[in-house]
Amino acid sequence: MKNKKALIIMIFICFFSGTWVQSKSQAVTQENAKQKKLENFLRTAKIVSKRRAGGRGENWIISLDDGKISRYGFFKLLDATRPDALIPDSYKYGIAAYELDKLLDLNLIPPVVEREIEGRKGSLQIFIEGALNESVRRMKNIKPPDPEKFKNTMEDLSVFENLTYSPSFCGERELDDILIMHKKDWKVWRVDFSEAFAPSPELIPECEITGCSKKLCQNLIKLEDEKIKAKLEHYLNDEEMSMLLKRKELIIEKIKKLIEKKAEESILSS
Question: Predicted confidence band at 174 (pLDDT cuts at 50, 70, 90)?
Answer without folding.
Answer: low
